[in-house]
Amino acid sequence: MKIDFDGLQAFVAIADLGGFGKAAESLHLTQTALTRRLQKLEGWLGLKLVERSTRRVALTAVGRDFLPQARAMVQDVSGAMSRLRDMAQHGHGQFTLACIPSMTSHVLPGLIGRYAQRHPGNHIRLLDGASTEVRQAVLGGQAELGIALAGERHAELAETALFDDPLVFICRDGHALASRASLRWEDMRGLDLVGVGSFMATRIQMDYQLARRGITLTARYEVQHHATALNLVAAGVGCAILPASTFREGDRPGVRRLAITHPVVRRKVQLLRRRHADLSPAARAFVDLMASSDADAWQASVST
């Protein structure tokens, strides 16, 4: 059943303002246009709602009985439309973000903090998982946005480069290499390395780049998460090769971060969204916030 909102709005305005002139003015209509709206509603209902004479305008008995319901419907629809317009103009609402766990160490908390200052009433639901899981979440509609590593292109995904995340060497202060300004990959042969997930995108990319140069590094310990590797290094169990975004100097007492060169191996972090999909106002506000951070700001977030 099609609801004639324009007719309801005209009827309520006439009833509340006591005449066609004031009602037409309040709705920015001519009296002729207002009259047509009322007549269309009455014709659809098959009932007379308003009695109009040369001297006065009055509601019929049916009109008086119907007025509270009509007023409530107009108020509900007007209120809902106003809230939607406010969401669109100010980025209000909520959205789901899928993200690789390493981004939650430093990069994402800072970004969400700035977002919360700008949009204190908004809500973000986080889904953390591997890059393949992030891609599937965005493709499947479980998340509007995703932050993942660059991978195989998908026709349904729009990808925007955020920053390059170099791999770094993490060790204790007392380690034999801790005093170096930077390391070459060859310097790490024979060390007690903590390896992170052989099927993770970061590990696959690292192994590929090293294999191209004839370099092989063997991990003594294998874990599944960057945080676990950091915990082991902090406890004095081996050293690790991790993305720079997962660790800043000063995060753990007695733990150092050293640059690795020849080659510098970087993973590329991307923002994902479904191609041609309309973002919610809250998600759009998040994208606008990220866009306001230039490339230098993104690199600073991982190089500190």
TrEMBL record:
Any one of the GO CC terms: cytosol
GO molecular function, one term: DNA-binding transcription factor activity
Keyword Transcription found: yes
Keyword Plastid among UniProt keywords: no
UniProt-listed InterPro entries: HTH-type_LysR_regulators (IPR050950), LysR_HTH_N (IPR000847), LysR_subst-bd (IPR005119), WH-like_DNA-bd_sf (IPR036388), WH_DNA-bd_sf (IPR036390)
Residues of the HTH lysR-type domain: 3-60
Domain of life of the native organism: Bacteria
Sorted UniProt keywords: DNA-binding, Transcription, Transcription regulation
Record-stated family: Belongs to the LysR transcriptional regulatory family.
Name by which UniProt lists this protein: LysR family transcriptional regulator
